[in-house]
Automatic annotation (TrEMBL):
Residues 201-237, 239-280 form the EGF-like domain. It comes from Buceros rhinoceros silvestris. Pfam families: EGF, Laminin_G_2. The keyword Disulfide bond applies. Residues 10-200 form the Laminin G domain. Gene3D superfamilies: 2.60.120.200, Laminin. This is Protein eyes shut.
Length: 282
């Protein structure tokens, strides 16, 4: 069990899955909202990719004019987009100062007009095209990534290709200027579901111990032991038999014969018609 107060996201894994948290749909977001959050990048390289920070949408996809709200990183800049149904409005920040350890984002929208403030950069504004003024979203609020696992099914609004890599601190939202900021979710701060989310600065590797020289490898909240030659198993506690294919060096029994381990070494049981130490003779 990992107590998560500051979620850590691992981006998109080798199978195409993103780590994410999914919160209940944010109510009363139609005409006004403000978000604020802090984040810490896993590394400088992660700032240069297309990384989704959060997303919510009408049908969940951001396709074909669907209403959506989206925040992400591209080429070292923060990208904030929304569509009220009559065209996409986008604000792109100046490049992030990568010498800063933690970045701060404050963004909002009232009717068609949106604004974005990143770190100590100047406030930027945009007005969405068309005449529609309301944001209608019904999907859950996705933080750090998205539930779908093929790139074609990631939200299309701004074309982010990966989940976020790093930590997100204290995301909060309000849907009226007279309200206090609150964490998303129902009850407050509680996600409905998630995948491969860890606790920032607290590796799950601290909770397990690989034996016999094995090394713990972390992937989000997933961990495994990378074992030294001759060892296997979840914690590298099982020896690799001389007859197993991963043994180094491999046994020499020819194809069709059976390798049988002995207290010292092994022997080869030959099929009908074969003979020799390794069943190599007809």
């Amino acid at each position: 069990a990992i107590n998560i107060s500051q979620p850590s996201f691992s981006g998109t894994d080798v199978f195409g899955y993103t780590s994410f948290l999914a919160y209940s749909t944010i109510p009363n977001i139609t005409f006004y909202y403000e978000f604020r959050l802090k984040f810490q990048l896993a590394n400088h390289h992660s700032a240069l990719q297309d990384n989704l920070i959060f997303f919510t949408g009408q049908k969940g996809q951001g396709l074909n004019g669907d209403d959506f709200l989206e925040l992400g990183l591209r080429n070292g800049k923060v990208v904030y987009s929304y569509n009220l149904g009559s065209g996409i409005a986008t604000i792109i920040s100046k490049p992030l100062d990568l010498t800063l350890n933690i970045h701060v984002i404050h963004l909002g929208r009232y009717l068609r007009k949106g604004w974005l403030k990143v770190d100590d950069q100047k406030n930027k504004t945009v007005t969405s095209p068309g005449r529609l003024v309301g944001l209608n979203v019904f999907s859950q609020f996705y933080l750090g990534g998205y539930r779908e696992y093929t790139p074609e099914l990631l939200p299309k609004g701004s074309g982010f290709k990966n989940g976020f890599q790093g930590c997100i601190f204290g995301i909060q939202v309000r849907t009226s200027m007279n309200q206090e900021f609150k964490s998303p979710g129902s009850p407050e701060g509680h996600p409905n579901s998630g995948r491969s989310v860890g606790q920032c600065k607290d590796s799950p590797c601290n909770l397990i111990k690989c034996r016999n020289g094995g090394k713990c490898i972390e992937r989000g909240s997933s961990v495994y032991c990378d074992c030294l030659t001759g060892w296997k198993g979840a914690f590298c506690t099982e020896t690799v038999s001389v007859c197993e294919p991963e043994h180094d060096p491999p046994h020499l029994c020819k194809q069709g014969s059976t390798c049988v381990p002995l207290p010292n070494g092994y022997t080869c049981h030959c099929p009908l018609g074969r003979t020799g130490t390794y069943c190599e003779q007809g």
